[in-house]
Specification:
Distance between the termini: 69 Å
Helix content: 25-40%
Number of helices: 16
Order of helices and strands: EHEHHHHEHEHEEHEHEHHHHHEEEEHHEE
Low-confidence stretches: 394-401, 425-445, 462-471, 494-501, 514-532
Strand order of the largest sheet: 2-1-3-8-7-4-5-6
Largest sheet: 8 strands, parallel
Strand content: 5-15%
Structural class: alpha/beta
Mean pLDDT: 84
Shape: globular
Amino acid sequence: MSKRRVTYFYDGDIGSYTYGLGHLMKPHRMAVTHHLVSAYGMLDKMQVLRPKRATPERMTAFHTDEYIHFLSRVTPETAEELTCHGTRFLMVEDNPAFEGVFEFCSISAGGSIAAAQRISSGAADIAINWAGGLHHAKKREASGFCYINDIVLGILELLRSYARVLYIDIDCHHGDGVEEAFYTTDRVMTCSFHKFGEFFPGTGTQEDKGMGKGKYYAVNVPLKDGITDESFRAVFEPVISKIMDVYRPSAVVLQCGADSLAGDKLGCFNITMNGHAHCVQFLRSFNVPLILLGGGGYTVKNVARAWTYETACAIGIENEIDLNLPWNDYFEWFGPRYRLEVPQNNMDDLNIKDGSLDKVRFNALRQLAQLPCAPSVGMHDVPRESLAGHLGVEVEDDREDGTMDDVDHCLAQHARYLYNLQESTARPDDSDDERHDPHGPSYRRNRKRMSIISNRFIDVDAGKSAPRKFFKSAAKWDESYGRVRLENEPVIDPGMSSTRTGGLAALMEAGGRSKYGKDAPDDEDHEDGMSV
């Protein structure tokens, strides 16, 4: 097997974080994997790098500023207040606000961004970041144990240099966050092999094919319980071969979620370590730049086994390593067999029993047959830094050079007052929620979220009141008076003191609302007996 230049990204701090006692997601699995990779002597055959941690600015290439700001300051003690009692950002108990959550996200995202940069620069043929692959995170909220979608950030980095990127997901759960991010573009094709039914996240049917320019560029292969190596290979190889032939990607990102392995605590497939690693071997054979990412996987010892073996597949030494595990710091975890293997169990393959596998494969290939050819895109050089950064110009947020007069200061103070009032009292998701987006995917418009642990929907709006309409002001500009007047404000003598009638100060105090309660608008602008 031909050699590849492999770069392996690992930050020693990643295994120190915990989602909480009893939580199924164990970041420590990356440390166990790294020790096993090291014990096999693979580190000497790769370039091992510690990635630079992603900055908040880099994360906002996909996520909203408000969400990143929230993650940077949330703690277990402030989570209830900052999430407004679980109605925004962290809306299901799957994603706790554990200590160090932002640092954990910066390591995961930084590794995937660095892997993409390594591939784009031509310094590596294959880049590995087992701390990445958190494919459920959305633009403005966490989901399914995922807070920051490092995959989307990595793909966005690849798109700076490559015309087309193929994303493949072999996690047991549908890669909904990545599909949603690139649902309307043909520059990224997403292909997900996942369990579908009453199963998190409840998306990923073969009717979801993309939209607009991205129509037919979202490929979904929904599977049933108990799929084996043979069945998975029978659908994976023809679909991926067709994609590689029709789409001709410039780079490939493979999410190697290990919850599709047999015996996983949340998964329901029956795939062995070798069957899982075959996906890596198959993609490696196309000789296209490849990024390998982690993902799900909740039986820690099997996750470490699979990712260690797939690291060997990336290097090309899978036939040379001893399946009897070498001594390492976690050797006792791998008992009683102490072997590099994840065997099948006795689950029935429902995909074969009802013949659904042939139908799913046929539908996927028929969708790909509707693609005429590989889409083209005009490429041009993209600056790696902002103009201000390149010129060394410092941009100050607040002007303190004397150019602000008294009116500027007054308006700035009033704006801060209104913003703080809205943040502390208004219902948070009024303006930024996807349900107000008429073009967004239909399955994101409701306020129900599915739990990855229970596979049940949770209504996050339960017990909450209707949204406030904060900025619907009762203030109007009066030409005759040359100032702002409140609705239903009595006509006054222009010579009267503004302090007597209130004027702008009264408007500021009332938050833009009329204080004349008798003539005030009705219930749509009031909540809990308070005018806002």
